[in-house]
Amino acid sequence: MFAPCRRATAMPDQTSTLPSPDDATQAPDAPAPDDARHLRARAARRDIAERRRVAARLRLALAQNEFLLHYQPYQHLKSGIIRGAEAVIRLQHRRRGLIMPHHFMPIAERFDVVNDIGAWLLLNACQNAATWPSSTCVAIRLAHRQLRSGKLAKQLIDALTKSGLAASRLELGLTEPMLIDRDDDTIFAIRALAGLGVRMAIDDFGAGYASLAALKRLPLTTLKLDRGIVQRLGQDHGDTAIVHAAVEAGHAMGCSVLADGVETPEQCRLLEDIGCDYGQGPYISPPLTTPQFLARL
């Protein structure tokens, strides 16, 4: 169950600066309409070229084994027991150190390189989780392009076979925007993955994208509450009611409910009182290396 990537145009040391849309109006002599269109077209071409350059750099990073995984634990709220962790990818840069996924995954998701990164993530997360106690699970967030590639089922079978991890200990996370169009091919792909025995989760639940009717069509096992509504928990009665309704909706669909983005003990207590099953976030634990995660169990 993975935190969602935010949009970025490049990795930190590879950011290109595009002209501001206001530059033309701020100039002493505003360009003619044809000149403005030319500037916009040139900026767009430069942006596309930069994205392609970053995608090529990500392919090279994959070939040179520059990615690594950290694991953010989630715990059962009533017992306080760690039940598993979400695998989060990092890029090791020789000068910048560890680069967080929101700097590069949004670009990767625009190109087929995301399928190769996703296959690497699946295999390595499964191999690591196979060394954990059998009561713990690993969660991975899927990219939309990866889900629709037609390659994911084979990648999943390969990862489970090579690692020896039981399929029931792997959870694949979907995001609500993937389900907006209710595309039959997407639904079929999700059901095919669930048919292999893995657990399926919906991330960012409550963000307002997918309807409950759409979610009922899916073989879900976990609903992960959007961090935005979790962080507003307790601020007023309305916010608390929204979280309560989301938890009840998840349970009504036969799902466990996990709250993402838990930052305070007060939020943790309120979530437990409401009946939420699991919590994840800075208050519980930041992402950890494999040895650090094992030490927490």
Describe the structure in brief.
The chain has 297 residues and is of the alpha/beta class. It is built from twelve helices and nine strands.
Structure overview:
This protein is α/β, with parallel strands linked by helices and about 300 residues long. It has one domain: TIM Barrel (Alpha-Beta Barrel). About 45% of the residues lie in helices and about 20% in strands. The protein contains 12 helices and 9 strands. The chain is globular and about 60 Å long. The relative contact order is 0.12.
Most strands sheet: 8 strands, mixed, barrel
Average of the residue pLDDT scores: 86
Query: How does the overall form come out from the CA principal axes?
Result: globular
Provide the CATH architecture.
Alpha-Beta Barrel
How does the helix and strand content classify structurally? Answer: alpha/beta
Name the descriptors.
single chain; 297 residues; TIM Barrel; 8-stranded mixed β-barrel; 9 strands; 43% helix; globular
Give the SSE map.
Layout: H1 23-26, H2 33-63, E1 67-76, E2 82-93, E3 97-99, H3 105-108, H4 113-129, E4 137-141, H5 144-147, H6 152-163, E5 170-175, H7 184-195, E6 199-205, H8 212-216, E7 222-225, H9 227-231, H10 237-252, E8 256-260, H11 265-274, E9 278-280, H12 290-296
Parallel strand pairs: 2-4, 4-5, 5-6, 6-7, 7-8, 8-9
Antiparallel strand pairs: 1-2, 1-9, 2-3
Helix pairs in contact: 2-4, 4-6
